Amino acid sequence: MITVFGEGRGFRIVWLLEEMRLPYKLRPVDLLKGVENDEEFLAVNPAGFIPAIRDDDVTMVESIAIMQYLMARHGPTPLAPAPTDAAYPAYLQFLHLGEAGLAGSIYYVNASRNLAPEAERLNWGARFALEVFQSRLGLVTRQLARSPYMAGDAFTAADISVTYALEMAQRGGSVVLGEAEQAYVTRISRRDGYLRAMENCHDTRAWVAKLASHGRSGGA
Asked: Which one is the CATH code of 88-188: 1.20.1050.10, 1.10.510.10, 1.10.1060.10, 3.10.180.10?
């Protein structure tokens, strides 16, 4: 049985598992309360961040690496085109862009805008990170002008990676998506796998509902 520790970027993992129809257990991790007394979780990830997984004798952290591992170990799956597939280069690029270019940068923007003291919320680092996000978002916009999905004509794990990042940007209140990107997020988030993941990720669902009650976009 695969155990997923924590939501946040762990939503990517749960969504992937739902798309692959693999059995799993979602084990909550409350970062706000602190993890210093959560011995089981710290045994999996001593660095104390989420997500992490345990799959029999394997433990892993980092959401994109986990996704690649799960598809390789429990595949094959159409969510990961073969290296010989013409869609493979775009798939691999956007799988990683979803974190390295999009979620990684917008995380610091959202943290500054929502957690920093008022005087520090528009600091230089946050502004620079937003510029990085916007430049990488342009690659998504260009790809959507070419094809319905990040890797071409078929849904792949790259769409999970990118959609999560775009929703993260919306939910943090930092970004208003353009028409093409918003239509993409709306369409992808209607997938059965996404809906099942949202149903199982109670903390994520509660957070989205809270944002919606305050008039902020949930991206779903």
From this structure: 1.20.1050.10
